[in-house]
Cysteine sulfinate desulfinase/cysteine desulfurase and related enzymes (Ruminococcus champanellensis), 377 residues
Amino acid sequence: AIYLDNAATTKPCQAAIGAINQCLTENYGNPSSLHHAGLQAQLAIDGVRRTLASILACEPGCIYFTSGATESNNLAVRGVAGAYGKHKPRVITTTVEHASVRESFRQLEQAGFEVIRIAPDSHGVFDPNAFVEAVNERTCLISMMLVNNETGHILPVRRVFYGAKRKNPQIITHCDAVQGFLKVPIRISELKADLLSLSGHKIHAAKGVGALYVRKGVRLTPLLFGGEQEHGIRPGTEPVPLIAGMGAAAAELAPTLAQRSQRVAALRAYLLEQLSPLPGITVHSPEDGSPYILNFSVANIRSEIMLHFLESKGIYVSSGSACSKGANSGVLEQFGATRAQADSAIRVSLCPENAKHELRSLVQAIAEGQATLKTAK
Ligand code: PMP
């Protein structure tokens, strides 16, 4: 099969699989146990904390492990609102966030918070001033993703967070960095992020593990209650094998960020070039976005129809984001696509192991689809 759905999830790398197996077979202690086996497990997860911290340029003690970015995002948004929201009921986000952020804000809205959602302009560009203008002294949180998972747009997080904090130094900033981690350089202090969400399975580790960076001094009300693990912010016995796998994958990817980015950018440019003779193609990803994602519509053919046609040729892509099971999330329209374009969008998301011949096969299959598939009404 030709796998072009790496924004949905990635194939675990050998380093991750090795680390997971090693933990399952040899390092199976409970990190909270006081004996040697417990200590070994604790050392393993603390090692991963150091790995992630060195990549993000932050303190290891600021990394908290979760079950994935959905949990990290819920913990960040609802945790800040719970800790600070009583006297500061205004919260700010964008109209293009992942469902796990979007739905967390919807929960806050139902609980009586004043949610301000900032949209991009018709070219898909966010004006940082729009966020800063929305900040007042009763604002506790601003949450903005780094790389959009459907289109690859890179959002001006640093400028927004910087401006917001200048206006209100008490404001807490959260960034969903899932699609940017180990793909674009991230330095926490430069981003001015107080909270930052990561996911393991987008970086060639396993599903079911993620992390939340929490700047020292930031208070969060937990989602779960139980033991003292992760300082009580995230109780529950840590999934040591999954965490070890995430650390191994991150350590392997970190030194090659620039090379991988270049390779993937070349693949993306090649795909664009191959697509250009085809009629009815509209590209929704910006040129200066993440090189890992290319979103485009094929006029008059509904996403699911094309997706399953491509699947029949052994090619896996996505329509919009995997989380919405193909349903239109509305995000593409926020970035300037028409409804008809959004309904016929295909997201190709790359990894460095993809090859040009795979992209040629994709384009050939799309052309075949255009010739044979029924057009949408
Ligand atoms: N945020 C973004 C931008 C994502 O792309 C995803 C995964 N689709 C998530 C959050 C959720 O991550 P997880 O699957 O680890 O819960």
